[in-house]
Structures are given as structure tokens and as C-alpha cells.
Amino acid sequence: MLTLKDVNKVYLTEAEAVQAVSSVSLNVESGEFVSFIGPSGCGKTTVLSIIAGLLRPTSGDIVLHDKEITGPTEETGYMLQEDYLFPWLTIQKNIELGLMITNLYNEKTKNDALRLLQELGLGDKAQAFPSELSGGMRQRAALVRMLAPKPSLLLLDEPFSALDYQTKLKLEDLVFSTLKQQKKTAILVTHDLSEAIAMSDRIYLFQSRPGSIHHVFDVPDELREKLPLEARNDPAFHPFFQTVWKELEKVENKHSNTS
Fold it and tell me: From the UniProt record, which GO molecular function terms apply (predicted)?
């Protein structure tokens, strides 16, 4: 579904050229849930922004459904740590924004969005304003807004990191089950290793200076088939966590030594 081939990103300043991302190549299959992990500054979010068409790579190819990505596309939806709901609009008006921007707004798409809002437990909040909702509720509304235009690829940049732990775990399960039910493909950027393991089919570990893929982990089948909270309690979770953790420590120690 998605292919990155030898993607590089160089930022030019008055003093120097800084290579942020180097030779990143990867494939994401339809329906997969993939995570990017690694130390701060390793290029995870840069790669996500390149996939979204928000940044142009210095070189390399990004192909989604056999079409090269050269800018933002209706095929992708983006969900961030901040919900970015407009405070002066009701929740209904907020979730309809994506439909308006993509010229997909009509009675059917509006009703589909409201039905999804209902399914995610916010049906009675359609006429409420963002300030009247908790952080978890606002992130659910942001999820509906992202899904309303029916993108095929979802890009999630630390969407749960600002939430309290209990809300975070509940929302992980909700997002995971919603995306699986709708057969969506997703890429998650996270600093939370447990979250990456609990939600993913595959994990890409990035290293820094410049940002590049250090290792790819296939999550065990017994974890992939469970909801994130169930996966965290599975006997296979801890051994796999330790395997990934040791490799992450190598990368972070290398990052610290070159800082």
C-alpha cells in the first residue's frame, strides 16, 4: 500500500546542511498497524510528515497506492498529540471540517460521521463545545474528524501522550478496535515502547544523526491478535518488550555518546 524508497531529508541553514533523515526505505501493507520508535530527534515525525505530504524529501520516492506523494492527499488522515479542535465550534461542526475541506460534505457523509461519533460514545456531545469535554473525549472527537473523510492511511503522532494513564489505555483499545473494524492502515509515532508493542504488527526502531532505520521488529502473532490492554497482560509481552528494549538502549546510548 505504501512504499518509501531511499528517502533523505536535508535541512539547509546559513551555516550548514543538516541531514535529518538518511536512506529510509520501508513498506506498509494494507490493513497493517506500524509504529516508529526511537530517541528524540531521530526523524520519526519528519518521516511521518513526509508521508503526509507536508514535507518534501530532498531525495527518494514515496508511493501510496501506486501514486507518488508530492503533497497533502485525501488518502491520508493525521492525528496529533493536541486535538486542535476549534473552541468556537461545536463538536459536530468540528468533525465536519475534514469533509468540508475535502469537498466530501453531503447528507450521507455527515450522517456517517455522526453515527461514528455515536459509536465512540459521544453521540450526546454533538452540540457541546470542546471546553465542555475531557481530554479523552476531545481525542475521540479528533479521531472521528480524521476518519470522517474515510482516508485509507492514518498517521498518528503521539495522540495519547497528553492523557492520564487510565484514559490512555482505554483510548488505545478504542482506537485499535475502531481501526481494525474499518480495516484501516495506520502508522503510529510514539515514545512509549509498551504502546508500540501493544498496538502494532511491526515496529521500526530509528537511530539518530542522521535519522535512519536501525532495526525492524515483527510483533508476535499472539500479541497482534489481542486488544492493546489484553496484549500488555499476555505472557509473551514481557519477553518481547525486553528484546526491543535492549535494542532501543543500544540506540539511545549511541545517541547520548554522540550528543
Answer: ATP binding; ATP hydrolysis activity
Domain that holds residue 235: 2-75+152-258
User: What is the tens place of the pLDDT at every residue in 110-123?
Assistant: 999 999 999 888 98
Q: 222 and 159, same structural domain? A: yes
Domain count, the chain: 2
Angstrom distance (rounded) from CA 133 to CA 107:
26
pLDDT tens column, 188-242: 999 999 999 999 999 999 998 899 999 999 999 999 989 999 999 999 999 999 9
* CATH number, residue 213: 3.40.50.300
Which pTM was predicted? 0.92
Does 111 lie in the same domain as 32? Answer: no
Residue 253 covered by a domain: yes
